[in-house]
Amino acid sequence: MPILKSSRKALRRDQRRTLVNQKIKEKIKIVLKKMRQSPTPKNLAEAARFLDRAAKKKVIPSRKASRLKSRLSKLLKTKKS
Length: 81
Fold this sequence. Notes:
This protein is an all-alpha fold. It has one domain (about 5-80): Methane Monooxygenase Hydroxylase, Chain G, domain 1. The protein is built from three helices and no strands. It has helices at about 5-35, 40-55, 60-80. The longest helix has about 35 residues, at about 5-35. The protein is elongated and about 60 Å long. The N and C termini lie far apart (about 55 Å).
């Protein structure tokens, strides 16, 4: 356990942020799974929106968000053809 008062505050802050980040990551997983199962432009837009939000909040790296969006759009193109 932290000894310093500021360390205790930091621990509480980190625990709150961890919960928020876990919720965001779980939502991303759900949206990605939905997109992979039924690739539609609507699902792609929804997935891109959540990935961009997560990258903006630094929950996931921005390059990972870009890579996932690229793969999903490629999946959509192959399913159309």
